[in-house]
Design brief:
The protein is α+β, with helices and mostly antiparallel strands. The chain has helices at about 1-30, 35-40, 45-55, 55-85, 90-120, 120-140, 140-155, 170-180, 185-195, 205, 220-230, 255, 285-290, 315-320, 350-360, 370-380, 420-445, and strands spanning about 210, 215, 235-240, 245-250, 255-260, 260, 275-280, 295-300, 305-310, 335, 340-345, 385-390, 395-400, 405-410. Helices cover about 55% and strands about 15% of the residues.
Amino acid sequence: MDHHIIYIIIMSFCLIMSAYFSATETAFSTMSKTRMKALAEKGNKRAALAVKLSEKFDKLLSTILIGNNIVNILLASLGTLVFVDLFNNNQELGSSVSTAVITVVVLLVGEITPKTAAKNRPEGFAMFSAPIIQFLIWILTPISFLFNLWQLLVGKIVRKDEDAKTSQEELLLIVDEVEQEGSIDNDEGDLLRNAIEFTERKAEDILTHRVDLEGIPRDATKEEVAEKFAETRFSRLLVYEDSIDKITGVIHLKDFYTKNGIIEEELETIITPPVYIHKTEKINELLKLLQTNKSHIAVVLDEYGGTLGIVTMEDILEELVGDIWDEHDEVVEEIVQLDEMTYRVDCNTGLNTFCDEFDVDIESESATSVSGWLMEVLDKLPVIGDSFSFEHLDIQVTETDDHRPTYIRVIVNEPEDEDEDSKKKDKDEKDKKSKAEEREKDSLGSTL
């Protein structure tokens, strides 16, 4: 009987260790490394040890698996001995009962319960577990060394998938999940999404089109330059030769005015060359290019070398943080709701913004704004009164400027229910059937 008590004590210890190993594995695989590093930087020694162990996760995992298997096998073996003795050395019955009991106990106490607890508080348990698992790594080093060699061999046979990287779509899903959990607010979520999508945006997606550019000819006088600065309130003016299609430089306001007024030197001395780019240039690469050239404006060229538009440093930053307004900017609302179902839309609105607002799917190979989309659909220069329907929207051009649409009116129609559609179809079919029967009767009557 005494040896049974010893067995039960050893089995209890094995069960506790099994729970410990299971919880440790879950804690280290689910903990936030960023949060742990932040705690370590604040001087938390256990957090620093946990970070150090997580950086060698293969070695950590080998130790956990070895320890967990040792205690589980020992627990099962001792359990078999105890139950065989209890059933008067009936090995078959004792083994069967032992397997059933030990399996249930290990699943509940050694697996499900500790893993659930560790998943709910992974950082706390990882810091608690770190010194103990560090000691066990030292103890089990000879055994884990052999398993690490086996891991290396398997790794050479089954090579790691190089394409198994986190995609942009997966990152966006992670941001959505974190936002829903309340770890970040909506503004922080929008900033993260903008940063993730930043590398996919091109210059043509954010440029200011050539028809909206303000510039001065190369041979303009200082008075004309001063007047243009006062009129536009821009800090920089484009300089062109012959037409806006040939932009040759930029004049900065701070170079044009000094403490004594307008500079006395010739304008040529303060004209700086612009940066030229193609419309397909990625804006993250463009940002580096502007920083390298210490420039604020890039001229976007089309396939013929003409001016398509410009992109400023502010345009790029707005892709990350949203619209940046200063005291001279006129606040423009792109989409204004006039009544319950009617909207006034600025034609400079981005096509993606329009689709998100009205829940439509527009596929266009070239158009990036509502204006470009209108020209594609109408297949001509829009004029006031032009209208068409798209999905559940009725669209009409209400304002134009120099052959360009500036505003449209959008009426949102309630989509008909499927039941109503089916009822209408059934009614139409019945009407057709009754009319056909009447025609048959008429023809039969005339025959008689």
